[in-house]
UniProtKB/TrEMBL annotation:
Secretion signal span: none
Domain characteristics, as noted in the entry: Has three domains with a flexible linker between the domains II and III and assumes an 'L' shape. Domain III is highly mobile and contacts RuvB.
UniProt-recorded name of the protein: Holliday junction branch migration complex subunit RuvA
GO molecular function terms noted in the UniProt entry: DNA helicase activity; hydrolase activity
Keyword Ribosomal protein in annotation: no
Species for this entry: Halobacillus amylolyticus
SUBUNIT field: Homotetramer. Forms an RuvA(8)-RuvB(12)-Holliday junction (HJ) complex. HJ DNA is sandwiched between 2 RuvA tetramers; dsDNA enters through RuvA and exits via RuvB. An RuvB hexamer assembles on each DNA strand where it exits the tetramer. Each RuvB hexamer is contacted by two RuvA subunits (via domain III) on 2 adjacent RuvB subunits; this complex drives branch migration. In the full resolvosome a probable DNA-RuvA(4)-RuvB(12)-RuvC(2) complex forms which resolves the HJ.
Amino acid sequence: MIAYVKGLLTTIEDESITIETQGIGYEVLCANPFHFQNDVKKEVKVHTYHYIREDQQLLFGFKKKEDKLLFAKLLNVSGIGPKGALAILGTVSVPEFVSAIEQEDEKYLTRFPGVGKKTARQMILDLKGKLVIWLPHEENEDSIFYQEDTTSKEKRERIDEALEALKALGYSERELKVVHTELVNTKSGQVDDLIRQGLQLLMKS
């Protein structure tokens, strides 16, 4: 099993990055390859999940270890394959996803590509209570995570509204994916503020 790849980031494609180490180029599939755009020609360390089946071997890469762990958990849910799991990670942060699972927010979960009501319910049944223990900032059941995330469902809706407004301005899905995580981590929750911050991030990229 390949736990991580450390080497020179040589190229970025629409769905993958290539890391060269000891004369070997590893093609690593990523949810948002362009998150690595500032690391081209630099040494990077990417956490990887080695997906092995009889007819294929694929290497999936993640900037954060918790993203890799969530990917592995999602693969254990009936109806979720590697492409579906990667699509989820490409549009949500780990804390945001865990919050949706813990709150049993089926409406939010069905927004992910290929996830219907049945699959959303299956994710909740399989994952509720099993994810928070390995989040980096989880220490006990009185964690700050729950205290700060009590309104996360409402904030997610405001972020979605802000992203729709940015999409209406002509920005592509790929560009919006790049700023999504930044908007999730911002302290401001008002739609107008999120739109302004989104525009600032898009103009920098």
